[in-house]
Amino acid sequence: MTTYTCFDVDISDGVVHIVLKRGDALNTMTPAFWQELPEIVRRIDDEAEGRVIVISSTGKHFTAGMDFEVFGASGGLMGTDSAEAQSNGQRRESLRGFVAMLQDTFSALEAVRMPVLVAVQGGCIGGGIDMISAADIRYCTEDAFFCIQEINLGMVADVGTFPRLAHLIPQGWIREMAYTGRRLSADKAKQIGLVNEIYDTQENMLKAVLGTAREIAAKAPLAISGSKTMINYARDHSIRDSLDYIATWQAGMFQPADIMESVAAQKEKREPNYLDLRPIKKSI
Description:
six-stranded mixed β-sheet, alpha/beta, 284 residues, three-stranded mixed β-sheet, Lyase 2-enoyl-coa Hydratase, Chain  A, domain 2, 12 helices
């Protein structure tokens, strides 16, 4: 299995567990992070390596967000010549592409066919909010807090926080977090719907989240993938368009074999045995 700078990856019982492993460095999002995460997620999707993805972290904090190395990287947010950056249209156009690349890293979590569950301990700061808002379900520990840090650095959050968070929590809370840079506590995060559940320790959280992931992995993978597709589509479209889309999807993807297996398993008092998703064909 490939070795990564920022992540460990384990696959068991249909669950792919991706772990941010730079706990001593607060799991900051270095240039390697932005290359490795989409590579891992797209490989899982392309090869159908699992049925559910869980993302967790190590150390005191989930992530402290963007590493300052990214700001000064070649072609990065700061560039190498501030005067040129202010006057050169080509550099500005290149910066737009750079931000789009960062956005694509987390869009991979949304696009992957499998549900993505995130388990947060400690601080989830800056780019961490961009990251978890692209996941399907979020959980946290009692000591967790969430912070749109960008305003404290004099910039606008631009990697996904606002487009996605606006569909997850009330706008008043997004605006307060965005304008003040204050920390949102775990209790408030659950109260407003950002996280599904709070746990007393990271150990208990991971035990529960991995248990939920295994429960999802036991369901029909095609139906799970279809459900994720429909939920994301409905978020971005009208009710009428969404109804039409799900009818069209169902006409093409309806799987009688999975229904028959579900019924048979219930009658025989056993776990159902569903077909996995197939790898995505990348070449002719």
